[in-house]
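Example record for the data management plan.
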Amino acid sequence: MRPLVFVASLVLSTLTLGAEIAPPSPADPGPWPVGFRLVEQVDASRSDTGSDQGRPVQTLVWYPAARAGQPMRYEDYLELGSAENDFSRTPAERRRRTDAALGIYTVLGTSPDAIASWRAAPVRASRDATSADGRFPVVIYAASDSSPAYENDWLCEYLASHGYVVLASPSHGADGGYMTDGRLPQDLANTRAQAADIGFLIGFARSMPFADTTHLAVVGYSWGGLSATFAAMADKRIRAIVAWDGSMRYFSKLMHAAPDIAPEAFTTPMLFIADREDPIPPARDAWPHSFITRMPHADLILVGMKRLFHPDLAAQSLRLGSMAKHDDTTLDQRLASYAWMERYTLAFLDERLKSDASAQTFLDATPEENHVPPGTLTSIRRRATSSLGTIADMAPHLFAERADPQTVHDDYVRKHPGFQIAGDTYSSWLSSLLADGDISQAATVAALWTTRLPQSGEAWTMRAAIEDTQGQRDNAIRDYRHALQLDPNNPIGKRRLQTLTSTPP
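Corresponding structural encoding:
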């Protein structure tokens, strides 16, 4: 969604707003002044835009400040959109392009005074302010389909005022253009490109002295929520996700086209906020094959907004006039609902990144207990049914004295139903143990391998080879013979069996 492009439908609703101009932000700020920096950088490792210079990644940074810097207006954000992919444009050229983008509103009936009010409205952030002392948790904001990095400037400023470093970049596809065009292969490539942008921003955050990337989350709106899910599957530095009506709930075909993005393997805690058009009924999801209903190993909080359509979840849309038609809500009610989304987002981040007990109490409470006005939202908390489990977590039990490998494995799977060891994992696991000289542990893994995959000639060969190394001649002969039954052309089995059987014990 990019309201400055889809101006025709946007202005039709704007005309009905009259003098209603959204204030700087609907939610109460935190204790810190907000600093803002623009970093125009290039990811030289990617040339997907066709440029030999790499992929442009316009980076916006909001952060807790010690004191305010140069005051900013909303127009400062608007002008960033005119130079997302071309950093060489001069300030005059950026202003001219912004004028042209906003000028269409005048033609379609919006008053010049209203446009001037939008542009001149103050924002909470101030440019190049001195950062506050200390290091703060990091939030990466992922924008919706083809939208600018500042589309939810209210949220980014709000989080920074409450002690977070927030980074954002525009939503661009793999070729630097629009994120979606309705073709599955291209949409999947574009989603992966935005996920890679998230990873790039995480890497950049590590260079910032006031950013604590050991406590990091991603907030994504619409398609940005989908890209955040892709990023979290690949990057375990991401400790939580907030999805404002994330598209992974709706695009099941795209999710199925990415076998590495399996909901059964997803473990990152998530806050999902749905709009009024697609409510989440208690204990179920009305969308078939929804990703969020098939991730049992992740903690999930579902918040349903009763007064907001999908476009209302963007500050840019609320500020300039929502594309959605509202017959039953006022702008003030929509702004109040947006503020509650900010508060639930902050509580979730505080719980996950700051271990804040009061935030957990807030999230565990009902909306009524949190004094949310009736008719605003619903809230459901669903704990993970079990931990997914990992090899590293199982290993101490497997290597315990006199432990039976098969029994340990079966007990662990009962406690972690989604756990499984892929066939090709055993080989690399054994290689790692043998490289460290852990022969006894390697023998245990080999025994488990042959138990779990009894038709694998490689498994029996490795088990026999380890027994051979340990001087267990009879066991090695037995298992080499078994390996040759499965694969008569096994060269290691042939050679070692001939050597062992021709050598007196």
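Summary line stored alongside the record: Residues 331-354 form the longest helix (24 residues).
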